[in-house]
Amino acid sequence: MLVVVSTVRAPLADVRRTLRVRWYRSPIDPGLLRQFMRRSDLQGWWQALGVIGYLAGTALLTHHFFSQRQWALFAAALFAYGTYSCFLGAASHELDHGTVFRTKALNRFFLRLFSLITFFNPDDYALSHTYHHRYTLHPEGDREVVLPQSAAMRFLFVIQLFCVNLTGGPGCDGLIPRVRDTVNTALGKPPARDAAGDTEPLAPDAHEWMAALYEAHPEERMKSVRWARKILLFHAAVIAVAIVFQLWLLPVFITLSRFLANWWRLFVFLPMHCGLRDNVADFRKCTRSIRLDPVSSFMYWRMNWHLEHHMYAGVPCYNLRKLRKAIEFDLPVAKNAVAAFREMRATWKRQQTEPGYQYDTPLPPTANPGHVDGSAPNRDDGLSTSIGDLAPAVLAR
Question: What is the reported pTM?
């Protein structure tokens, strides 16, 4: 399949009028789907406090070994903390969709809390991610993810994945560019890289993408600027408290939490779209789900079921596994994280000599063929096409 890349993009206002992706969605009983889409404060509290509990526990253990100067155990505990603290961006993703808690105020509270900690800008993200869901991997309307994506694992980048990610790499931004971009946004300058936060791989033309978004929706820009300023004030306060009270690990647990031990996050995060197909109207061909152990899936806010999330984005994360079981007959086999990463890497390596190659995900014999050209009727009943409360007011219409 030949990939055609255009250097001239239509204004997003025109794209919204002309681009109609008639998505194929696996058939499901509307009553069952309605049941899966129910939000629960109890489930939301369990998810949020469970994540906070793990991080608090490993942080206390790390502090204990630090105070006892047991450096090997300190390093192991900090590694255990960072392996999952860098998953907090997935929390902001789910909370930005507004599907975690039934009570909207709780969604907003935890969204802003986790976003402050992780340098995540939910206002940028809501704008970008709404387009991503409506036009997934159709470059005219979605440049949050642009194929082909790099899966290059350079030596220095891999080293950073096991300690502190300073400079970033494929699907994983680093401390330096993230702080720089936040400062630029706070000063009202265009973002130098992406607005995709912690849930989508970096696009090569992300600067152009954010410029296009704010050209189409200039009224949204100041929300982003104000939030960036709050992020900087928050982390300045964290560092000030650490200095005054000599709490030297406090900035490590908070300001560096997103950038510690990114190794496992890369394995489960990058394969979501990397190596798949663009310009198709079938999520089974452009999105990948993977199987994870229960702890990793929980800490990742169940986003390993990423195909299911795209197909029915209004379903809360804690119901995605149930959704998977209900429509599994119609979905590709979900590989484990290592197998999915190998598949993605094999595709990327082939693309080095065949730039137009894209992996065509095989479907099981029980699956409907779908219509990747968008010729099939689309069930647009509001329930099936819901993306939760993600869309800002300018895009909710």
Answer: 0.91
